[in-house]
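Fold it.
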Amino acid sequence: MTVQFHCPKCERLEKVPIPLSVGSWSCPGCREEVPTFDPWILAKERSLGRCFLCGGERFYTQRDFNQRIGCLVAGLGAALSPFTYGLSLLVCLGIDLGLYFLLKEATVCYRCGAVYRGIPIDSRHQAFDLHVAAMVEEERKYLESASK
């Protein structure tokens, strides 16, 4: 079980094992102390109820695949479609369908974007919802302005 996230100060991509130590985590790049929340919620519920990094309680699931590569494959299929009479789009569809069944799911925090891998999938965590993402963004802005 791992969590992948960007350091809030230096934006360095980090991948650390779960559970994180209670209290704070120190970024190896900038030495910024990042507070961590109680990691034992996972052990009690056997599902992710709170983000270890930001304390957020809203998550979504997605296939654990680099979205840039997915867009590249779709774009390549679309670019080749005039020369292949659309067959390249069918090949890309087959690749996409195969990857959908082969890849595992990852859980992502709406608030901070932390990606949790190896976590048991919770039925409360659905696919990405733009409305929920907008609500979480407004909530984050409100909490930031209230803390100033």
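Residues 2-64+104-147 form one domain.
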